[in-house]
Design brief:
Radius of gyration: 20 Å
Protein name: Small ribosomal subunit protein uS14m
Strand content: under 5%
Helix content: 40-55%
Pfam families: Ribosomal_S14 (PF00253)
Family: Belongs to the universal ribosomal protein uS14 family.
Subcellular location: Mitochondrion
Keywords: Mitochondrion, Ribonucleoprotein, Ribosomal protein
CATH class of the largest domain: Mainly Alpha
Number of helices: 3
Number of strands: 2
Order of helices and strands: HHEEH
Largest sheet: 2 strands, antiparallel
CATH topology of the largest domain: Helix Hairpins
C-alpha cells in the first residue's frame, strides 16, 4: 500500500473517532435547531454551536475504505475490502465462508 493510500486510511479512521466522540452533542444541537416550538434566539444559538463543532465529526465525511489497499470505491461493506482485494483473497481461499459460485 502506498503512503498516500495509508494516509487516506489514517484520515478516515480519525474521522470515525471524531464522529463517535461528537455524535450525541451533534444530534442534540441538530434536534434543538429543528424544534420550531423553541424561541428563535435559542435555535440560532444551537445552530452556532453546531457550526463550531469540528467539520470531520460529521458522519457524511466518513468514507468506506478498503483496509488493505485504501481504495475508496467499490468497497464491500461487510468485509471492508475492495472488490479487487476481495477477489484475490477469495480465489486463494483466505476468506472463511466464501466460495466460488456454481449452479
Amino acid at each position: 500500500m502506498s503512503v498516500c493510500k495509508e494516509n487516506a486510511n489514517i484520515r478516515d479512521n480519525h474521522r470515525r473517532q471524531l464522529a463517535e466522540k461528537f455524535e450525541l452533542r451533534r444530534n442534540l444541537y441538530k434536534a434543538l435547531c429543528k424544534d420550531t416550538s423553541l424561541p428563535g434566539e435559542l435555535r440560532e444559538e444551537n445552530r452556532y454551536k453546531l457550526s463550531k463543532l469540528p467539520r470531520n465529526s460529521s458522519f457524511t465525511r466518513i468514507r468506506n475504505r478498503c483496509i488493505f489497499s485504501g481504495r475508496g470505491r467499490a468497497v464491500y461493506e461487510t468485509f471492508r475490502m475492495s472488490r479487487i482485494v476481495f477477489r484475490a483473497l477469495a480465489n486463494k481461499g483466505m476468506i472463511n465462508g466464501v466460495k466460488k459460485a456454481s449452479w
